[in-house]
Amino acid sequence: MRQTMSPEMPDRMAARICTALAQAGVTVWIDGGWGVDALLGRQTRPHGDLDLVVAATDLEPLLARLDEMGFAVIDSPDQRAWNFVLGDDAGHRIDLHVVVFGTGGDGIYGPPENGESYPAAAFAGRGDLAGQQVRCMTAEFQIANRRGYALRDVDLHDIRVLRDVFGI
Questions:
Q1: Domain of 105, in residue numbers
Q2: What is the C-alpha separation between 73 and 90, in angstroms, rounded?
Q3: Residue 107: which CATH number?
Q4: Cα–Cα nearest to 39, from 149, 147, 168, 151
């Protein structure tokens, strides 16, 4: 397990990761700050990581492809089987969110008894990352997902730009 500090996650690196995963047949949805900026089609702020949502059925090929790119799991006291961080020697970080798709299309996040899930409609987002078309979580989900915890300045920024552009 790697322990790294993170520099900024540049758009070209984020796009390179998404391209490599797509070429490996792995479907991911961009969440978090890069997910917001992908929806907007432009970078609006610096990003310290790339948040990706992936189906549990794609986890093994995702980890294999990221290993080829120099990424490994970063030791963290709060890591869980369905949420952990990978990093490379340059300090880039990927915050991975693993879901199991239920019969209704919801992405069950963690043990079912926890009751946490991504609604099926949240996976309908499409965006642009460094000129590349990508899947991302919808604007509505991005705003809703920022409820329930203390908002940082970057969260307030993300909510503001989504509301301004999408009228949510």
A1: 11-163
A2: 14
A3: 3.30.460.40
A4: 168
Q: Say how far apart CA 33 and CA 23 lie, in whole Å.
A: 23
Residue 155 belongs to some domain of the structure:
yes
> For residue 60, is it within any domain?
yes
CA distance 53 to 64: 16
In a domain? residue 144: yes
Give the distance from CA 168 to its chain's centroid: 21
The model's pLDDT over 33-86, given as tens digits with 9 standing for 90+, comes to: 999 999 999 999 999 999 999 999 999 999 999 999 999 999 988 899 999 999
pTM of the entire structure? 0.94
Taking alpha carbons only, the member of 145, 147, 126, 103 closest to residue 28 is 126
Cα dist from 91 to 38, 74, 121, whole Å: 22, 10, 33
